Amino acid sequence: MFQRKIGKQIAILAVLIIFWASVQAMVGLGIINPYYELNLILIGINIILAVSLNLINGFNGQFSLGHAGFMAVGAYGAAIITLKTQLPFGLALLFGALLAGIFGILVGLPTLRLRGDYLAIATLGFGEIIRGVIVNIDYIGGAYGLSGIPKLTNWTLVFWLTVLTVIVIANFVNSTHGRATISIRENEIAAEAMGINTTKYKVMAFSIGSLFAGLAGGLHAHYFYTIQPGTFNFLKSFDILVMVVLGGQGSITGSIIAAVGLTILSAALQKLAALRLVIYALLLVIVMLFRPQGLMGTKEFSLKMFRRKTKDKEGKQHGTAIGQ
């Protein structure tokens, strides 16, 4: 069993390396032009955002609408380090992520006592407060934003940090802490009755999700040269939420599939920017009507899923043949 698990992990790593090397080679040879490279970078950043929000909304059962605020904290924190102190990019990303994680703890401690719509309103308020504070600080550009940020984000960095994000959150979900987090989602009163410190695990999930949102913000800031407060408004939080709901609240692979699909859709609808939100809304309505649990529900993509479906299909065909 252990050897099979190790073999599976080695196979996944090999596939990831082959995929990364293939894309890197195509970028280097000019087969993938800057436009497609931009969309690959955005896909990676959106996967980090969707998976990290899914930890809060999907696995922990909370309802946060302030993810763009934590992204803004990470973006401005990382940009200040590279612009003002000239420290290495790695330290800037780490600082931005940790700063967003700290804000997650500070916001989570008082607000996570709330539930449902009240928590959504509180986190939405936090995101708008962050944006309002940034607008009024001239040191970081105020309403005009921060420009002249060095372009240090590249495909390799985004790809492997995306992989790291998925691994960390998947391992957290499958750990004892993750099981406690999921139990809060299923029934918070029962979890408290069993001795689980619900506030502790809520804040833990919230801070980890916020940390990775800050990481995504740092990557975003160092790819687009400039950042503005308007980039991190409510609509950005809504975009991330759509990815989580569409993919399935409680499914990491669902968030990845939705992030890839919606990023490609957004790129295709650039000429119809005014209709983008209308199409998003229609997409959500259709999903809620025909697949309310999302594309993946709470399941994860695996080869066993296909094997099970194939066996079930063969069993039905066999039963039909016998009946005839």
Automatic annotation (TrEMBL):
<feature type="transmembrane region" description="Helical">
    <location>
        <begin position="12"/>
        <end position="32"/>
    </location>
</feature>
<keyword id="KW-1133">Transmembrane helix</keyword>
<feature type="transmembrane region" description="Helical">
    <location>
        <begin position="89"/>
        <end position="109"/>
    </location>
</feature>
<keyword id="KW-1003">Cell membrane</keyword>
<keyword id="KW-0812">Transmembrane</keyword>
<dbReference type="InterPro" id="IPR043428">
    <property type="entry name" value="LivM-like"/>
</dbReference>
<dbReference type="GO" id="GO:0005886">
    <property type="term" value="C:plasma membrane"/>
</dbReference>
<dbReference type="Pfam" id="PF02653">
    <property type="entry name" value="BPD_transp_2"/>
</dbReference>
<dbReference type="GO" id="GO:0015658">
    <property type="term" value="F:branched-chain amino acid transmembrane transporter activity"/>
</dbReference>
<feature type="transmembrane region" description="Helical">
    <location>
        <begin position="118"/>
        <end position="140"/>
    </location>
</feature>
<keyword id="KW-0472">Membrane</keyword>
<feature type="transmembrane region" description="Helical">
    <location>
        <begin position="152"/>
        <end position="173"/>
    </location>
</feature>
<dbReference type="InterPro" id="IPR001851">
    <property type="entry name" value="ABC_transp_permease"/>
</dbReference>
<feature type="transmembrane region" description="Helical">
    <location>
        <begin position="272"/>
        <end position="290"/>
    </location>
</feature>
<protein>
    <submittedName>
        <fullName>Amino acid/amide ABC transporter membrane protein 2, HAAT family (TC 3.A.1.4.-)</fullName>
    </submittedName>
</protein>
<feature type="transmembrane region" description="Helical">
    <location>
        <begin position="203"/>
        <end position="225"/>
    </location>
</feature>
<feature type="transmembrane region" description="Helical">
    <location>
        <begin position="240"/>
        <end position="265"/>
    </location>
</feature>
<feature type="transmembrane region" description="Helical">
    <location>
        <begin position="63"/>
        <end position="83"/>
    </location>
</feature>
<feature type="transmembrane region" description="Helical">
    <location>
        <begin position="38"/>
        <end position="56"/>
    </location>
</feature>
